[in-house]
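Example 347, ligand NDP.
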Amino acid sequence: MNKNVALIGVSGYAGTILYQLLKNHPKVGTITLYGHRDVGKHLSEIQPDLVQYGQVDPVINQFDPQKIMKEADAAFFASSAGVTNQIAGTLIEADFPVIDLSGDYRLSDPKSYEKWYKKPAAKADDLKKATYGLCEFHPKLSRYVANPGCYATATLLGLAPVVLNNLIDLDSIIVDAKSGVSGAGKKLAPGSAFMTVNENLTVYKANRHQHIPEIVQELKNWNPQLRSIQFTTTLLPITRGIMATIYAHVAKGIQDPEKIISQAFIDTYEDKPFIKLHGSNLPSIKDAAYSNLDAIGWQYNPVTGVILIVSVIDNLLKGAAGQAVQNFNMMFGFNERIGLPIVPIMI
Ligand SMILES: NC(=O)C1=CN([C@@H]2O[C@H](COP(=O)(O)OP(=O)(O)OC[C@H]3O[C@@H](n4cnc5c(N)ncnc54)[C@H](OP(=O)(O)O)[C@@H]3O)[C@@H](O)[C@H]2O)C=CC1
Ligand SMILES: CC(=O)N[C@@H](CCC(=O)OP(=O)(O)O)C(=O)O
């Protein structure tokens, strides 16, 4: 049976892509929109491209959890950080299915959220109800899914095979991650203005990126010996895509690292439809852009003993709206592939 959904935040970049995916999803019925500054407007007034000629032009509603619970089967929040933890409480307490694209329920420790996001955290009891929704790894979903961050998705999927199989020195992980500008959302800011970004590369939030605690939290769940990682983010002069370039020393005593590491990637991901393994043929951004894929390649350097892993996603799909729909599919027992693009657009 089709599911009716509520979408909060259609005016943002992630919300726009999510609306497009949900509109074309074979198991989604009615999509009701809830907003913030655009309440009362028609969708065509804020996102004309989302409404085709002759199609229904939905109105943006004032957020109303009772209406959502009455009319919908699930709610997607594509709102800025600090919104769901203020307004989603009624839904969480009623165990109503929620998929949250923001960072508000990803960190299990409220103090850590307040330190890294500089905003008040969600209630500790509500945080306990959330599952971290990295689709390839969560054992079972709760009714509240914290969709992972874009950089965290690329980094964790790149590192999983070598961390879970104890193939690297856990104190040696260095992640050099780069993102297109759509990752910054639609708000205007000097750091993402055309003059700053065009023909330029800018390192930002060095050692203070909010995805550091999220990545460390999940890596520690996989291997409690892990202490920290070195993590740097750079803004690329492109619209969509993230490349996480990851370096680590291979653990001592591993015989034939090249073969063992390749086998670990194959064993970890052989039944995962959205992971595309490139082996030593390292992927570029266009190997994942406009798809829900994570394209992963790796190379072992026998001279330095370092494994290089390159993990590439589309930040708005696998890094946000695509993974949210994948979680929706899994939450309702649908095939996890439905409604999601699997072929990247190279041109
Ligand atoms: N862009 C990306 O690549 C990724 C984004 N995310 C996360 O997804 C979420 C959305 O990101 P993105 O689309 O880039 O951000 P945008 O800045 O483009 O959009 C933010 C959205 O949140 C809405 N919003 C803001 N405040 C409120 C409020 N008080 N109540 C309801 N809605 C509100 C905005 O509505 P209005 O315009 O009316 O203010 C807008 O629709 C963020 O939490 C982000 O961290 C996660 C992974 C990747
Ligand atoms: C290019 C760019 O600015 N990207 C954003 C990613 C935002 C994001 O996904 O952050 P949340 O954890 O709030 O979901 C950043 O680096 O902060």
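Summary: Residues 151-315 form a domain with the Dihydrodipicolinate Reductase; domain 2 fold (CATH 3.30.360.10).
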